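During the no-cost extension, the postdoctoral fellow (Dr. R.K.) reprocessed legacy sequence entries with the updated structure-token encoder. One reprocessed record is reproduced below for audit purposes.
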Amino acid sequence: MKKIYVFNPDNDLALANFGEHYTPPRSALKIGEDLDVLPIWFSEKDSRVICREVSNSEFRNTISALGITFESVSWREAAATAAEIMPWGWNPSLRRKMID
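Re-encoded structure tokens follow.
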């Protein structure tokens, strides 16, 4: 079973709120959007990462040369699989996002 990695830098804020309907501040969303491929550096081989599609061929070529391969997957695809989800951190908001 492939693991699916999630970078959710707003985890500490979500834990402090501890609600299923937590809305992160725009700054936390921006960090998450800008760094959503971060898990490729520490994920297991042939893992999947929840991130936007990486269309930058130079970036893909660089990481391929390092022997790193990954598949990007959407939240919907991740929630529909029986894969093991590996988030930066678990919180009620992320749990709700995964089961909705």
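The first strand starts at residue 3 and ends at 6. The mean pLDDT is 89. The remaining legacy entries will be reprocessed before the final report is submitted.
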